[in-house]
Amino acid sequence: MMRRLECNCCGGDAGRFRQWWNRDTGFGQCGRCTDWSLERGESLAHVRDMAGDPGVHRPQGELEAALVAKYGAEGAAALAGDAMRQAALAIKGE
Questions:
Q1: How many structural domains are present in the chain?
Q2: Which residues contact 56 (CB under 8 A, 6 or more apart)?
Q3: Residues 6 or more apart whose Cβ sits within 8 Å of residue 22
Q4: Residue 93: predicted pLDDT
Q5: What are residue 27's DSSP bridge partners?
Q6: How many helices (DSSP H) and strands (DSSP E) are in the chain?
Q7: 43/57 Cα distance (integer angstroms)
Q8: pLDDT in tens, the chain (94 residues)
Q9: Which helix (H) or strand (E) holds 16?
Q10: Do the Cβ atoms of 93 and 69 come closer than 8 Å?
Q11: Of 11, 63, 82, 90, which has the highest C-beta tally within 10 A?
Q12: What is the model's pLDDT at position 35?
């Protein structure tokens, strides 16, 4: 069931998506906060474990989309920690 979600991180609008099992009812994660998590070095796998799949449970952030476009889904999924932070900075600097 699709519902309007509030971002669990910033309190803003997280869009209209399916509820992710790992979030309190009515809460999801917005694309801006997803990108913020990636900039901090969290992996795509961790973000997906915590907030669900982009386009289904949450919006895809701009940085997330750029990482997948540049490195491919598997390559972006392999980035974490310092490698994710450096990749994020490189994309934001482009």
A1: 1
A2: 17, 18
A3: 49, 50, 51, 52
A4: 85
A5: 6
A6: 4, 3
A7: 17
A8: 899 999 999 999 999 999 999 999 999 999 999 999 999 999 999 999 999 999 999 999 999 999 999 999 999 999 999 999 999 999 988 6
A9: strand 13-18
A10: no
A11: 63
A12: 96
